[in-house]
């Protein structure tokens, strides 16, 4: 897969890129959607019906994420972000901050990480629409730092809600020379549709995943195996 020096690369990651850091994926065996029903913990209706159950689920997720470290796949991507500064857009479906931490460790100035499903480290005030960095629990319904209302919820995109920054994501995909999908099952739209958009816009497309995903057939090339090995090898190939 040859690339011109000024090529633009869009990378889409899913839960699989963080699996080897110890964060459960959603649809692998034993994954989160076998432990919890989506309808109980990942929809606006669930939050309205039983906010404490939803907030306990996110406390558990947040605690798990905060004990984890970026793995070799995150660090390899950070190397790429640094070497191809400004030409790599990293779109993640993950709400963890492992890409951000790996980029900071690598000294990447402008990491351009787009969290299309939100971030577990943020709380979103539904009264004043402010997003605040928030590491503590929300179970006691604390006051919003901006407006004082007890209207904070996890800054996570739930089923039935619209992902963040889709305009930026679509603009990056439509001007990509290479689109790489890493560690996602291709089960959830619109993330799962980005590969077709990239291909139709003329990009080369590559899937790096543990096993064939629901969208493997849309890719020019698909490599299967653990992200820590595949991503490090791919970045090594690109950077030499
Ligand atoms: P969708 O149609 O985009 O995705 C539905 C997917 O949810 C299905 O493909 C299935 O894989 C999964 N799903 C639904 N019920 C499930 C269950 N009981 N067990 C396991 N998996 C289940 O969902 P939507 O409601 O149309 O979502 C619209 C938007 O919400 C999407 O654009 C997506 O970005 C966002 N979203 C966010 C989350 C999240 O937890 N952050 C989860 C899904 C979707
Ligand atoms: N290396 C590479 N890929 C892996 C690894 C690994 N070590 N472990 C698992 N995978 C792959 C699985 O084969 C699977 O295809 O990662 C994918 C994980 O898929 P999901 O669990 O469905 O996670 P994801 O694709 O991120 O889910 C999309 O659904 O519930 C919503 O908002 C949630 O963002 C999430 C979205």
UniProtKB/TrEMBL annotation:
Q: Does the keyword Zinc apply?
A: yes
Reaction(s) the record says it catalyses: N(6)-acetyl-L-lysyl-[protein] + NAD(+) + H2O = 2''-O-acetyl-ADP-D-ribose + nicotinamide + L-lysyl-[protein]; N(6)-succinyl-L-lysyl-[protein] + NAD(+) + H2O = 2''-O-succinyl-ADP-D-ribose + nicotinamide + L-lysyl-[protein]
Lineage: superkingdom: Bacteria
| Cellular component terms per the entry's GO annotation | cytoplasm
Q: Which PROSITE patterns does the entry mention?
A: SIRTUIN
Active site (catalytic residues):
117 (proton acceptor)
Report residues binding substrate. Answer: 58, 61
Required cofactors, per record? Zn(2+)
UniProt GO MF annotations: histone deacetylase activity, NAD-dependent; NAD+ binding; protein-malonyllysine demalonylase activity; protein-succinyllysine desuccinylase activity; zinc ion binding
So where does Zn(2+) get bound?
Answer: 125, 128, 144, 147
Q: How is the cofactor bound?
A: Binds 1 zinc ion per subunit.
Enzyme class (EC, first level): transferase
> Where is NAD(+) bound in this sequence?
14-33, 93-96, 183-185, 209-211, 227
InterPro entries per UniProt: DHS-like_NAD/FAD-binding_dom, NAD-dep_sirtuin_deacylases, Sirtuin, Sirtuin_cat_small_dom_sf, Sirtuin_class_III, Ssirtuin_cat_dom
Query: Where does the protein end up?
Result: Cytoplasm
Q: Which Pfam families match?
A: SIR2
Which Enzyme Commission number(s) are on file for it? 2.3.1.286
- Is Cytoplasm one of the keywords UniProt gives this record? yes
What keywords does the record list, in alphabetical order? Answer: Cytoplasm, Metal-binding, NAD, Transferase, Zinc
Residues covered by the Deacetylase sirtuin-type domain: 1-240
Q: What is known of its domains?
A: 2 residues (Tyr-58 and Arg-61) present in a large hydrophobic pocket are probably involved in substrate specificity. They are important for desuccinylation activity, but dispensable for deacetylation activity.
This chain's function reads: NAD-dependent lysine deacetylase and desuccinylase that specifically removes acetyl and succinyl groups on target proteins. Modulates the activities of several proteins which are inactive in their acylated form.
Spell out the family assignment given in the record's similarity comment. Belongs to the sirtuin family. Class III subfamily.
Q: Could you tell me what this protein is called? A: NAD-dependent protein deacylase
Q: Which organism is it from?
A: Novosphingobium aureum
- Gene name, please? cobB
């Amino acid at each position: 897969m040859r690339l011109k020096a000024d090529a633009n690369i869009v990378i889409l990651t899913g839960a699989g890129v963080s699996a080897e850091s110890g964060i459960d994926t959603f649809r692998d065996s034993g994954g989160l959607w076998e432990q919890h029903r989506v309808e109980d913990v990942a929809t606006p209706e669930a939050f309205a019906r039983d906010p404490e159950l939803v907030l306990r689920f996110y406390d558990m997720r947040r605690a798990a994420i905060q004990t984890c470290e970026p793995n070799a796949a995150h660090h390899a991507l950070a190397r790429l972000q640094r070497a191809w500064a400004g030409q790599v857009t990293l779109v993640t479906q993950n709400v963890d901050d492992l890409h951000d931490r790996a980029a900071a460790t690598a000294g990447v100035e402008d990491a351009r990480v787009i969290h299309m499903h939100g971030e577990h480290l943020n709380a979103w005030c539904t009264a004043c629409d402010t997003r605040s960095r928030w590491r503590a629990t929300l179970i006691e319904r604390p006051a919003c730092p901006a407006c004082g209302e007890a209207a904070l919820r996890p800054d996570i995109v739930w089923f039935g809600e619209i992902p963040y920054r889709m305009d930026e994501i679509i603009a990056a995909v439509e001007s990509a020379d290479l689109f790489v999908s890493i560690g996602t099952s291709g089960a959830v739209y619109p993330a799962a549709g980005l590969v077709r958009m990239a291909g139709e816009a003329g990009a080369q497309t590559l899937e790096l995943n543990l096993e064939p995903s629901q969208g493997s057939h849309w890719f020019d090339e698909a490599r299967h195996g653990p992200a820590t090995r595949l991503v490090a090898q791919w970045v090594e190939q690109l950077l030499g």
